[in-house]
Amino acid sequence: MKNGQALEGLPVRDATANTVITIQPRDISHGKRNKPGECPAARACCRGLGATKALIYRTKTFLRNGKEWVRYNTPQSLRTELVAFDRGGRMMPGDFIILAPKGSQRLGRHKPTGPKRRSGKPRRKWHLTESVRERAPNLHERLD
Asked: In whole angstroms, what is the distance from residue 71 CA to residue 69 CA?
């Protein structure tokens, strides 16, 4: 494990290629709201990709294959469907491409720590999406 990156005690690695998941109506009807491991997308990953477990967060997707986790980026299209589902709305079935992290999004990459540039403008306030699943675990923190 590089830099102690683990999830549930197992190592995490980045995916090397994009993959497609197909969410079917039965995944939606058996899915549970606000549960990253029991939502329709997680059910579709376990059924269609053969993952033993899946955790789908707003920005990251983790698939467990045997004794390791594979990390993907959750696409905007799936994120929108998940927010609607978690808030009590309908989720539509379909195909979604979960994306392999690229460049600076990969594990073990860190942003430069050089001097900070300031524009003199006040910082923009972040928008927090409420009433949906929690955030993905931060794997860049070192575990001791």
From this structure: 6
Task: Quote the distance between the C-alpha of residue 11 and its chain's center.
Answer: 16
Alpha-carbon distance values, 142 to 41, 90, 131 (Å): 29, 38, 29
Q: Please answer whether residues 107 and 12 qualify as being in contact, where contact means their C-beta atoms are separated by less than 8 angstroms.
A: yes
Tell me the C-alpha distance between 53 and 35, whole Å.
13
Closest CA to 1 of 67, 74, 100: 67
Distance CA 54, CA 49 (A): 10
Q: Per-residue DSSP letters for 41-93?
A: HHHHHHHHH--SEEEE-SSEEEEEETTEEEEEEPPHHHHHHHHHHHTT-----
User: Which tens digit of pLDDT belongs to each residue from 33-72?
Assistant: 999 999 999 999 999 999 999 999 999 999 999 899 999 9
User: What are the extents of the domains in the chain?
Assistant: 18-102
**pLDDT for 5-34, tens place per residue?**
888 889 999 999 999 999 999 999 999 999
